[in-house]
Amino acid sequence: MRTIVLRKEDIYKGYLILVNRKYQYHEQHQELSHAGTWNGEEILLESGANRELNKLMEEIGGWDQIVPVSAWRSLEEQQEIWNQSLAESGQAFTEQYVAVPGHSEHQTGLAIDLGLKQVEIDFIRPYFPYEGICQTFRQRAVKYGLIQRYQEEKQSVTQIGHEPWHFRYVGTPHAEIMAQKGFALEEYITFLKDYCYGRNPFIFQTYQISFVKAAGGVTEIAVDDAQPYRISGNNCDGFIVTQVIGKTEAYQSPDYSGDNRVTGVNGKEDGDES
Ligand SMILES: [Zn+2]
Question: Which domains does the chain have, with CATH numbers?
Answer without folding.
Answer: 2-14+187-269 (3.30.200.180), 32-169 (3.30.1380.10)
